[in-house]
Amino acid sequence: MNIEELLGSFVRRLNRRDMHLSPSTLDSSLPAPAPGLKYLLYLHVPYCIALCPFCSFHRVKFERDSATRYFDCLRREISLVTDAGYSFDELYVGGGTPTVLPDELVATIAAVRARHAVDDISVETNPDHLRADALQELKQAGVTRLSVGVQSFDDNLLKAMRRFDNYGSGPQIAARLKEVRGIIDTVNVDMIFNLPQQTESSLRHDLDVLVDDVAADQVSFYPLMTSDSTRAEMSRTMGTSSLSRQKDYYQLITERMLSAGYLRSSAWCFSRKPGMYDEYIVDREQYVGLGSGAFSFLKGALFANTFSIGGYMELLEAGKSSVASKRAMSAHDQKRYYLLMRLFGGTLDKECAEERFNGEFQHGLWAELTALKAIDAVRDTGKSLVLTERGYYLWVVLMREFFSETNTLRDQMRHDIDRPSSVRNSEESTNVRA
After folding, report:
1. Domain locations along the chain
2. At 154, is the secondary structure helix, strand, or coil?
3. Domain 21-282, what architecture?
4. What is the tens place of the pLDDT at every residue in 314-336?
């Protein structure tokens, strides 16, 4: 095992501890907003036409009546947090597939813009929704960035992922991406590398399509990230993946994208223009998440909304908060989280970090920063901490572990929905006493 994977294993153990959320029984609402602060707003739409075996996000099979009611509840929740004093200047709508009901999505975006001066609006979608008329409607609604879940242009992999029949072949998806090019300011293409059955030849083909054929504005290459539940399903339907080739695949991606003139936006995102982020957590420390299964990070604490979609809608129709769980981070863990997220974007401004943590940032993380410099992962320029080439790959490993553990947390919270309340209460009581 190399040093990057050893550190990844260490982070995995830390995440197991940090991602334990306690039921929010005393106060089931978000804290009051900081005066004058503008937040990012994340909206979660969990509905998908088909469920992919590799996906660990909170998603369910699309049902029109349920989704229509859900969007109405989402707009109710937007009103609740707005009335509580929150102000937003950026919106990200993820899923699931937010574009399953375009009219409801547009109405929900309008509900946000009616009360907030939101300039940047990102929406996730799938290849089957890449139609010029639909994207024109999204553009008129204010959408500035569209993130398309492609995953691969290899037909064999698309079939193994159960995406071929639902979203089309690799050539068909590439053709759709070209047809809608230029309608939305930025179209990001989401890809996965190190999939089971993926070969170097297949990955090179994906890169050629993205760079030479599609000429994508932005590409995010995610390493395969699973949870306990999806790992078993993937093994059954696609086989197992080996971490031994992940670094070689990442180097292949990096060399091809940088040589084609793309810039790094994060450790795994490449953009044609500077200042284009694929993950809002890179530059937005605090954010509000609305919708079933959404997370918020506010005032050093992580909040999770209920994963019960029916329960979520009942709460909002009763005018109540959907927050179900909370975990407050220690001061030291907040510094490590800040370090992880900022360096994910490649650079950390030391002056900003010291101001954020009252002059205790570098002193508080002395051991971590010393270790990162010793293994040539981070370089100190005086003004900033920046990732080295080795550091970029290390951050892919660290963020893979972070998101994988988040996926496992989603599994646990979905599992909690199905347990009898008497069992949950007994376990929660035991956890409190421990």
Report:
1. 21-282, 331-387
2. coil
3. Alpha-Beta Horseshoe (3.80)
4. 999 999 999 998 889 999 999 99
